[in-house]
Amino acid sequence: MRVLAKDIAQACRDRPGETLEVYGWVHRIRELGGVTFIILRDRSGMLQLLLSEAEKVDISGLTLESVIQVRGVPTLNEKAPGGVELRVHTLEYSARSAPDLPYQVNADIGKIGLEAVLDHRALSLRNPKIRAIFKVQSTIIEAFSRYLRGQDFTEIKTSKLVGGGTEGGAELFEVAYFDKKMYLAQSPQIYKQIMVASGLERVFEVAPAYRAEKHDTPRHLNEYVSLDVEMAFIASEKDLIALEKGLLSHIFSEVARKNAEELALWKAQVPDAQAVERAPIIPYEEALSIANGVSASGKKPGPRIFDINPEAERLLCEWALQEKGTDLVFVNEFPRRYRPFYTYPLDATRTMSFDALFRGLEITTGGRRQHDYKALLEVLPKFGLKEETIAGYRAFQYGCPPHGGFAVGCERLTQKILGLSNIKEASLFPRDRKRIAP
Amino acid sequence: MRVLAKDIAQACRDRPGETLEVYGWVHRIRELGGVTFIILRDRSGMLQLLLSEAEKVDISGLTLESVIQVRGVPTLNEKAPGGVELRVHTLEYSARSAPDLPYQVNADIGKIGLEAVLDHRALSLRNPKIRAIFKVQSTIIEAFSRYLRGQDFTEIKTSKLVGGGTEGGAELFEVAYFDKKMYLAQSPQIYKQIMVASGLERVFEVAPAYRAEKHDTPRHLNEYVSLDVEMAFIASEKDLIALEKGLLSHIFSEVARKNAEELALWKAQVPDAQAVERAPIIPYEEALSIANGVSASGKKPGPRIFDINPEAERLLCEWALQEKGTDLVFVNEFPRRYRPFYTYPLDATRTMSFDALFRGLEITTGGRRQHDYKALLEVLPKFGLKEETIAGYRAFQYGCPPHGGFAVGCERLTQKILGLSNIKEASLFPRDRKRIAP
Questions:
Q1: Are residues A283 and A156 in the same domain?
Q2: CB contact, 8 Å: A296 with chain B?
Q3: B105 partner at 20 to 30 Å CA-CA among A264, B99, B257, B282?
Q4: Would you say A273 and A253 are in contact if contact means Cβ atoms under 8 Å apart?
Q5: pTM score > 0.80 for this model?
Q6: Inter-chain contact B401–A95, Cβ cutoff 8 Å?
Q7: B1 touches chain A (CB under 8 A)
């Protein structure tokens, strides 16, 4: 019966002298005067194995990263990692690793370089620090889903193959769909709105989303995981901000609870509930003034900022940390021209929309939507759109409640929680203009 | 403060005489001697509203499926649905529904027809029986994820844009990816295997999968939600079958617990844990004999069956229900020629593979995989494949443990739990050769 590395010390205390079986990868080999020490790594952690010459276990040709199954008796040893080691009686190879590893898993991962990390995911994830990223991401997805289910949201799965983009058709990947042209969905926008109108009222979706944007930056992916939310019977974007605050608080507290080790590896911390609650909500024009104010007062004043661009996002978060003691800022009331046609108006020039900025990066865009079909038709010409291109919205003629929603970029949230310098580090198999494999 | 329909009776008992607010859709209107009865529908259920002439609430032009917000006082009334009704003082329109509904939501949904149901999802889901399908599906996804997390599996999200199919490249949708050709992934097969090799050992993914198959049948979708599982350190497919039994048991018990109302609407039942445990595991050749035996002994003997085709799946399930009292059958040891190149051999002709059949339909394909890279290379010529086409598997050279996995088709499981005649009913926005909208 297999025992995980993390449970060996306890097993040794509970059943001293009993022979146990452990499986895993050879993380490190060290020879010391007739004794070989192997650090074995499994999904739970590391364990020191001790092979003495007396036992006559054949380890000729043993390579790093080979997968082995060993049987032996654990003994408590204060000097061993985790306070326990296993004296090996038998050793079998599940898989012998080729000796020409592209890089050493047990080395400082910072020295390996991003391309090598991404090229060899089966190796790079064996490094505990790299693996930590995806343990945190798994928690984010779980916490997102669980919080919303607790608020009576229904999980939906909608098609990623669409006839065109709801925002007008730019930056879409084309799919040859039998004898037709289709496109990869940029977001489940219209589908989640239809689901609100269908009477589900509150829905969420976790699914890939696609942007055929040519830029290659540390904050963009051409394929990403979108954490989407949409809910009925809201009055304004402020109801959505309140929901997102609760949601992010829950995600942060779950990451803190389940991933303390992973956070420690990255020297990272998550905001507590009070810090999230303190997050200011700043109207767009005021946010622009603040960003320009911070920029002007800096050691090296930057050029004047005319919209909430990445530099403004960074400056606003700098300001919020200093003035409000929080990593999170909401900017609302974006001007009409910056938002899609379906955004609900606040007045002639402003909309009931918002962005969430976290540690210098926009992680969410959202807002109240126009639920009245006639009003939607009226704004179309301003956006150069025709009724045919928004055919899906015809469903709104048959009773669509006031509603709105938002999306959280899963990789962006992961990146900012851990302080990763490039978003690609937060995607197992990222896609950019050049990277199409593995 | 809004109160949901399902909570009105309790609110009436707790705080009699208090004015409450309810929001929802106008499901039915009935006039009876100066009094108008409206059945209001919200995400939680139905509530009877009572509008007397004395109150002077203007309901001129009130249309079915309009969204309204009303205030009034609830009174217990044994004759009203749910034992309570709300005497309306004020009524506001959130959205007036156009009077030309494509069909009536409160009608027998069976008469509407599949095409109309799919064309108008915002309407069809308002019918409680149709909505039930997706409440059950939401529970399936939640239960799948939660069970596997409980077994120490990590949730992963992998790219759906791949360079080619792992099974050889047929039946793929092509994507114009900048200046390159890519394809929509048929399954996360190689990625979940790489994640096992990465030391995560146990992974699962919930994501769309694509098959460019031209057939249009009640059991096929061109885009579906694949519930994928992969785990390390298994000896054979029997370990996977044991896992799937536990997983399905959990899913069924969660659906029974959370969706009793939804199951009742479809007159459906889920198997209990004992029935799942009783599911037989039948080697391929024996399964073929059984299917032919059932076929021959029927009232109208069919032609001889030469492989486990849809008819054989149906017959095997018929047999299992009669002989073993279970809706679930596992067929294992499929011949080499029917399985992909990466399937682990049992002997010269058979493989460590299996299918799960549930109520006449294959819902799962899985098996142990070849984890030795050299052995993989050796079988390639038999499948007409070259080393370049399986480049991703090179990762296996660096220590890949014995492993295997399976995938459950989410829509198929939903279909068979509820007894839906067509799988498209279990997809919110299904895609087939002709259906590309909404």
A1: yes
A2: no
A3: B257
A4: yes
A5: yes
A6: yes
A7: no
